[in-house]
Amino acid sequence: LKMSWFWFYLPLRLLMAACLCHSIKDPTTSSQQSFKTDLFNFYHSLILADGKETTVHLLKDIPRRYYFVLEEGRALAPFTITVTPCDVPIEWSILVHKASTSFLGKAARGDHDTQEVSKSQKASSMVSTIFNYKGNSVETYMGMSSHSALYMLEFLSTERDTHITVYLTTDTTSGHLYPELPMDPRIDVIGIGHTTVTLTWKHSPSVLQHRENIQYCLLVNEKHNYKSLCAAETAIRSSGMKLPPTLALSLSPYLLEPQQVMILSNSELSIINRVSSGEVRQICMGTKNTYTVPSLSPSTQYYFDVFVVNLLTNASAAYTGTFARTLEEPEPKVTELKDGKVIQVVLDGKKQKFHSLQYQARHKKIQFTFQLCRGQVRVHITKNGKTVASENISGLRYFSLKGKLLDTYLVQLRSTEANSSVKVQVSPHFHKPLFPLLPESLKIKSFSKLRTCNSVTIAWLGTQEESKYCVYKKKIEEDQVWMELRSADRCSGPESRHKSEKVLCKYFYDINPQRAVTTETIKGLDAGTLYLFDVYLFGPSGIPVRYHSKVVKTRKRC
What we know:
Layout: H1 3-23, H2 30-40, E1 46-47, E2 52-58, E3 64-68, E4 77-85, E5 90-98, H3 101-109, H4 114-124, E6 126-135, E7 139-145, E8 149-156, E9 162-169, E10 187-192, E11 197-201, H5 205-209, E12 214-221, H6 229-238, E13 260-265, E14 268-275, E15 278-284, E16 290-293, E17 301-310, E18 316-318, E19 322-325, E20 334-336, E21 342-347, E22 354-360, E23 365-374, E24 377-383, E25 386-393, E26 396-402, E27 408-415, E28 420-428, E29 445-446, E30 456-461, E31 467-476, H7 481-487, E32 502-508, E33 517-522, E34 530-538, E35 544-546, E36 550-553
Parallel strand pairs: 1-3, 20-22
Antiparallel strand pairs: 2-9, 3-8, 4-7, 4-9, 5-6, 5-8, 10-11, 11-16, 12-15, 12-17, 13-14, 14-15, 17-18, 17-19, 21-28, 22-27, 23-26, 23-28, 24-25, 24-27, 29-30, 30-33, 31-32, 31-34, 34-35, 34-36
Helix pairs in contact: 1-2, 1-3
């Protein structure tokens, strides 16, 4: 019989045979009794597909059974079964039921008598367990099958509901669903830095044979190693977020969740999943077998897993995971602060992420002033080793602190974004302020209804202190807006601007802060054009503060 016909008739044959077996009172072992019950309830079970990966969902403490029989006409047939747990350890076993094919055929046709069935049952029916395993590793069983044997796979999870994948194949000539691992599947750590770890591993034979359909994917996390790709995906999902269907096929931004960031550069795909236990980073790097993992945290232990993935079947095989601890961050250089002196600190976010400033108080009341020039910076201030202030700064920020003479203050600056910079000043509380008095908001407002083809009207807040305000304009293109706003140095003054960009300078103030508002109409503009407007505020010391830039487009038609 061909396999397709056998699958069609097998349930009917087994049901009838089970009914006959059930009516016979022969003494049998408990395993034989259990197996007959399984046959009787065959319609509750499933035939395991040959040559296809099957996902099996397991409920806690409820066994799940699958059956398979190889096609007739072959005395011995090789087969392999691969089971991949995707979460907790499971128990699974293979049982074989050796029964005469002619007996099953007669039972299905009904040409038998009770005595014949009894003899046949005694002589030709036997149940035995040929393999069992308990754990969460990927396990493969390889065996030879007789055409007269019925196989049952039983799966059980005793910890919680879970799922697994099962792959049965009898075709040993047309290649493998799963990519092959090398003889030595270990991952070697060949370099460790403060924020990087360099890994290498031996090539999979599948990469050498089918380079265009195979790629390596790396998983980085701070928790533990994973023995399979589906185990890693399950762990990420259980942290309260959805994951793209697989690591290898997550190439489209629309598959990502808000907790995920995708980075594609130099033919490498990185997906960062922000979960409760930290970041889980996934990198697919094609067929390169050496990789330097960037942007790690200093003095942190990371776990690394490499998977070789078949892009056609989406099946994967796991190398033996490894771990490494990044080096401790070197002590940052400490700069002494002097009363009234302004210093500018540049943090590139790579080599220079931290900077420390030290100040020994010569007065009981002091004031720290921070002006964020670019990027994002976090300030942490300690007094004699105890934290007195810690926050991300924005714009201009003052910290007024009280203490004793000769108290030691340590200011730690940390960049949370590449290419950040900040100006810092410390002074006695009574010292003449270096920066001007600031309004409640540094935003520039534009009036849409007052826009024309050659003019726009803007407004900004002033203060109770008479100050000088200078307005500058710059013509920009649509695709320059984001970069202009992103890269603007808020500490730079008008001296960095071209003379042709200057519009006007004016003085004003109002004792009532509610009325300290001024407007200005800028004329002589081009129709349908984008302009970037900046306002600079100058205080008594002459140091400017730049308002937030405003982009306005003139009307195209009037």
